[in-house]
Write a structure and sequence with these properties.
With about 130 residues, the protein is an alpha/beta fold. About 25% of the residues lie in helices and about 10% in strands.
Length: about 130
């Protein structure tokens, strides 16, 4: 759904939309170098030459610091993965209003909560969650 929305925003260019998305899992950044690449992740795997100097398995913190994303979309089910360091790194986003979407449920699996997001990423963020905090 994210790719569809980005595609519409960029003039129905699905390739451009996919190029803006970086997918990470429990092992970090997913690139085409990944062994045993999940077929569902394959369309989002970055060619290492297009990964902005990031390597296979780069951590979330490394990716946020390097790419300065506009949006963090949390669908991991890993509670607290948007930790203080990651949220502070979002202060350097290229967006004047970076978005942090902590969508995992139940609440104990949320990537972060609103209080921590605003405390560490700053007051100018857009926050949404899938949990009732």
């Amino acid at each position: 759904m994210t790719i569809q929305a980005l595609s519409r925003m960029s003039g129905n260019n699905e390739i451009a939309a996919k190029n803006q998305c970086y997918l990470l899992d429990k092992d970090g950044l997913i690139t085409k170098e990944r062994k045993n690449l999940d077929p569902a992740a394959a369309p989002f795997a970055k060619d290492i030459k297009d990964a902005e100097g990031l390597k296979e398995g780069a951590s979330l913190l490394e990716v946020v610091k390097k790419l300065r994303p506009h949006v963090l979309l949390g669908l991991s089910g890993v509670g607290g993965i948007f930790n203080e360091q990651v949220l502070r790194a979002m202060r350097e986003s290229d967006s004047p209003k970076p978005a942090i979407f902590s969508m995992s449920n139940p609440t104990m699996n949320a990537e972060c909560n609103a209080a921590d997001a605003f405390k560490h990423a700053g007051p100018n963020i857009v926050f949404a969650s899938g949990s009732p905090f």
